[in-house]
């Protein structure tokens, strides 16, 4: 997928109500590890953040269901 198509998919095709804009401030050590994580999986910064957040939510739901 070329850069233009990816940009359109991420910024134009999705409804604006689906998005929320946030600023992340990462410690320098974590930033290097995160860059490696993104490169290894060929993900953009946003894609990697979304993937990690979704995984954290799923793990949180699993832990909550195990406690009950």
What does this protein structure show overall?
By secondary structure, the protein is mainly α. It has a domain at 24-68. 71% of the residues lie in helices and 0% in strands. The model has no long low-confidence stretch (mean pLDDT 82). InterPro entries: Ribbon_hlx_hlx.
Helix amount: over 70%
Main sheet characteristics: none
How much is the average pLDDT? 82
Distance between the termini: 44 Å
Over the alpha carbons, how many angstroms does the gyration radius reach? 15 Å
- Approximately what portion of the residues adopt beta-strand conformation? under 5%
What form results from the Cα inertia axes? Answer: extended
Helix and strand succession? HHH
Summing up helix and strand content along with how strands pair, one would put the structural category as: mainly alpha
Please give the number of β-strands: 0
The low-pLDDT segments are none
Helix count from the secondary structure assignment = 3
GO biological process, one term: regulation of DNA-templated transcription
């Amino acid at each position: 997928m070329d850069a233009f198509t990816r940009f359109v998919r991420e910024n134009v095709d999705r409804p604006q109500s689906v998005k929320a804009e946030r600023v992340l401030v990462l410690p320098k050590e974590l930033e290097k590890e995160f860059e490696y994580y993104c490169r290894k999986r060929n993900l953009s910064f946003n894609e990697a953040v979304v993937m990690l957040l979704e995984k954290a939510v799923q793990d949180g739901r699993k832990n909550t269901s195990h406690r009950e």
